[in-house]
Amino acid sequence: MLAKEQRFIERFSAHAAKAAQVQSRVKALDKIEKIELPKKRRVVKFDFRQPPRSGDQVVTLENIRKSYGRRVVYDGLNLNIRRGERWCVMGKNGAGKSTLLKIIAGAVTPDSGTVRLGASLTMGYFAQQALDLLNADITVEEQLRRDFPDESIGSLRSLAGAFQFSGEDVDKKIRALSGGEKTRLVMARMLLNPPNFLVLDEPTNHLDVATKEMLIDALKDFDGTMLFVSHDRAFLRGLSNRVLELGGESGTDAEPHLYPGSYADYVARTGHEAPGVHQLICVAATSTL
Fold it and tell me: When you count CB atoms within 10 A of the terminal residue's CB, does the N or C end of the chain come out lower?
């Protein structure tokens, strides 16, 4: 309809006999609210490199105890994480999901117990706090060039494009980036030369659908070990091969529950989605619980 009216105006704008009709239609068009559709982003395929091989034993937790005041989060937790396994660790708010990741990443010290990291292990830890550690005064491209000085500009541009930074986006100052853009930048920095153990606390927060799909596809081919928290069911179904549930359905069970198989197997076995599905954790691991 709009196109038809615009063609009429363009065709008869110079005709005196049609001047009144042209002006009438111009006024009518001016009153119509025009909505500009968002530009469709082009998804860039990027072949992420495989990490160096770690030892078979990735992380061992023995008799871990952790409390915050009177609230006991873990009392005698044992967990054995082996190379290539992907656990989905789930639980309601307060069950200790993020605390588990922080203990393994070394961001939190347990009150007692032992954390042992395996041989030839390189760890990449992502949490929302990582967004605040970026240098706000440089651009996206400058950040990537500082991180990877030996990489070609073409390679870095391809990496940026895979995480939806294209054209002038790479010239944005980091202080001007949204939460989702910062998340994409941190993930890009982590995955160009990926570590062999990824610990990810809700990496899908703020990500658009295209970037989530790209990230899932990349991580499906990741030849390492993973531990991640995600509220996104596509991550749970696409990437887990083990399930560790904290707190049970009630959220208060003292003993963690171990389900062999993937998150999809867990749902089929229990007949329901995970408790607190919007804040689930997935881990590449093997438990001795």
Answer: N
E strands, the chain, in order: 57-68, 71-82, 86-91, 112-117, 123-126, 197-201, 225-230, 242-246, 257-260, 280-283
Q: pLDDT band for position 14 (50/70/90)?
A: low
Under the banding of pLDDT at 50, 70 and 90, the label for residue 221 is confident
DSSP secondary structure code for residue 237 in this structure: H
Residue 30: its H or E element: helix 19-31
Are 21 and 12 in contact by the 8 Å Cβ rule? The answer is yes
Q: Which residues lie below 8 Å from residue 180, measured CB to CB, with a gap of 6+?
A: 205, 206, 207, 208, 211
Task: Provide the pLDDT for residue 128.
Answer: 82
- Mapped onto helix, strand or coil, the DSSP state of residue 202 is coil
Q: Give me the DSSP letters along 71-91.
A: EEEEEEEEEEEETT-EEEEEE
pLDDT of residue 44: 59
Rg of the chain over CA atoms, in angstroms? 25
Nearest to 194 by CA among 53, 95, 41: 53
The predicted structure's pLDDT at residue 109: 96
Average pLDDT of the residues in 217-229: 88
31's tokens: 């009153």
Strands 197-201 and 123-126: parallel
Q: How many of the other CB atoms lie within 10 Å of CB of 84? A: 18
Report the amino acid identity of residue 108: V
Which amino acid does the sequence have at 73?
V
Q: 165 Cβ partners below 8 Å, 6+ apart?
A: 140, 172, 181, 184, 185, 188
